[in-house]
Amino acid sequence: MAGLVLAVAPLSVMGVAAPTAHADDAVDSSNFLGVLSSRGITYTSRQAAIAAAHEVCSELDQGGQASDVANNVMTQSALDGYHAGFFVGVSIAAFCPRHSQ
After folding, report:
1. How far is Cα 25 from Cα 70, in angstroms, rounded to an integer?
2. Cα–Cα distance between 83 and 89 in angstroms, integer?
3. 88 φ, ψ to 5°?
């Protein structure tokens, strides 16, 4: 999770493809960052938090389970289980709702 919470290390070395810019992306990004902040989840930069969220989506696109992705977030960040799961849920809502259940 690139740069998330206390300079969190990247979730994987697969690399995160830069998302294509759309008008909705700015709104989704602002909402996403606002929700993180409302739960006390801090990040080293806006871009790092957004890249980490896109990495969540990428892992889900590759067949990962949300619980496994949340465990990866928790392992590679300073987030506890609740906040790691919250980060995954907010990432899904903002950037890959196709993975909502």
Report:
1. 23
2. 10
3. -65, -45
Coil, strand, or helix at residue 14? coil
| C-alpha–C-alpha distance, residues 46 and 62, integer Å | 25
CA distance 48 to 14: 15
Q: Do residues 94 and 31 make contact, with C-beta atoms less than 8 angstroms apart? A: yes
Q: Could you tell me the mean pLDDT of each successive run of 10 residues in the chain, 101 residues long? A: 44 37 63 94 92 96 97 93 96 95 77
Measured between alpha carbons, how far is 37 from 97 in angstroms, rounded to an integer?
Answer: 20
**DSSP tag of 16:** -
